[in-house]
Amino acid sequence: MSLPMIQDIRDTVIKLTYIARRAELNVIAKAYKHGDPLPRIEYTAEERETWRIAYTTLKELRKDFTCSEYQNNIVEMEAAGLLTADRIPSIQAVSDYIQRRTGFQLRPCGGLLSARDSPPLWRFACFKQHATSAIHQSRTTALNPM
After folding, report:
1. Where is the Biopterin-dependent aromatic amino acid hydroxylase family profile domain (predicted)?
2. CB count, 10 Å around CB of 7?
């Protein structure tokens, strides 16, 4: 078997593993009912390492590429122990923090929302989210911001 063929097989396995994980997370999100506790996701070692790499890299870029409001709020979330490179924050912890400060809350979302889905939720002080539930493999982190 040639080296390119082995690489193609490896890439296919990685993609299928990622698709299966996304499907698993979508089932968890879609099972959520308003009023239930937000689901707690058990992340894999690879997902936690991807988070660490992404968090550390983006933290270095923050001063040059984000507004002061974002910078101030993210520093407060770090000081509160909510955001660290060492662990992916729980949806519930982030939602509780945001709700105390703004009245808004997070809800799980299976997949992406369209532009039409979000504004109607704002009147209920609700943001659907999925970013913390789906973590790309570390191999593709530098190539894809999601």
Report:
1. 1-146
2. 10
Rounded to the nearest angstrom, the gap between the alpha carbon of residue 76 and the centroid of all alpha carbons in its chain is: 19
SS3 call for 127: strand
Given a contact cutoff of 8 angstroms between Cβ atoms, the answer to whether 89 and 83 are in contact is yes
pLDDT single digits (tens) 59-103? 999 999 999 999 999 999 999 999 999 999 998 999 899 889 888
Are residues 109 and 38 in contact, defined by beta-carbon separation less than 8 angstroms?
no
Distance CA 20, CA 100 (A): 35
Reported confidence tier of residue 6, pLDDT bands at 50, 70, 90: confident
pTM of the model: 0.71
Q: Are 91 and 39 in contact (CB under 8 A)?
A: yes
Structure tokens, 25: 């997370």
- Alpha-carbon distance values, 100 to 69, 70, 94, 106, 125 (Å): 17, 17, 10, 12, 12
The C-alpha atoms of residue 59 and residue 3 are separated, in whole angstroms, by 37
Domains of the chain with bracketed CATH? 3-143 (1.10.800.10)
